[in-house]
Amino acid sequence: MSTLQKKTPARLFYLHMGSKAPQRQTDFYQRVLDMQCEPQPDGSVVLKGPGRTVLISPADNHGLLAAAFRLTSQQDQNDLRQRLEQKGCPTQDTISPLMQAGSFSIRDPQGRETIFGVARDTHEANLPGLPGRLQHVVFQTTELEAMVNFYVNTVGFTISDNVVDQESGQLMVCFLRSDDEHHSLAFFRGSQNEWDHHCYETCEWNDIRDWGDRFAKEHISIFFGPGRHGPGNNLFFMVVDPDKNRLEFSAELETKAADQAPGEWPQCERTLNAWGRAWIRK
Ligand SMILES: [Fe+2]
């Protein structure tokens, strides 16, 4: 099967956030996440830090407008677009201040937008600041099976781990990869369709400490963690930004070979946090 990992590896590149208070969001990402601000002609703002980029636009509601994945070449971009069209998934030309010409977007059956393209420049990897590469994005969904079916069978993500309710046998969480990293996308079964969180992958445990101290200075409390996830085996903690979007800081995320079979975990606190209490989505 033509998976992203095997044919056209993709990495999360930037998130396009909408905000009712874009200046407050911009200030936060500039000050707390060491990101440099590049105002755009349409009133949006690009923010770049080491390995992380966000685009913030004024909007009626806060939340995620699109997640953008970076492909390694124009050839991969064209191959993926052709594969998607062949599978009956409409693609749309996208004009992005961060992507080269030829980037395109798709929408999943619940309307989430994903952009694929080749980065216009990659120098943001060398910007100064605490390390934390934008690495994954996660959603809650009322239609978990349909989302997994779309992202696996149409888009080409690979299942790394499933979390299953042991009594009902129902799938509760699915972690999906688009290259060697354990997950760049995940879906939790939920009572609502909402953006769950996004994650910055650091280099090591000491970076987690430094980010914790950074948020302590800002009087921002950790609401989940520190701990270690079962699936992915990564160290983590989570905080919120001024719009209440959830941010995760992670280290030691595992990698998976292309043909590795999906793992299965029971739905319990220990799966989501081997160290203790967990945030169980309802
Ligand atoms: Fe996460």
From TrEMBL:
What are the VOC domain coordinates in residue numbering? 133-252
Residues of the signal peptide? none
Q: Which residues form a coiled coil?
A: none
Domain of life of the organism in this record? Bacteria
Q: What's the protein called, per UniProt?
A: VOC family protein
Pfam families in alphabetical order: Glyoxalase
Q: Known InterPro entries for this protein?
A: Glyas_Bleomycin-R_OHBP_Dase, Glyas_Fos-R_dOase_dom, VOC_core
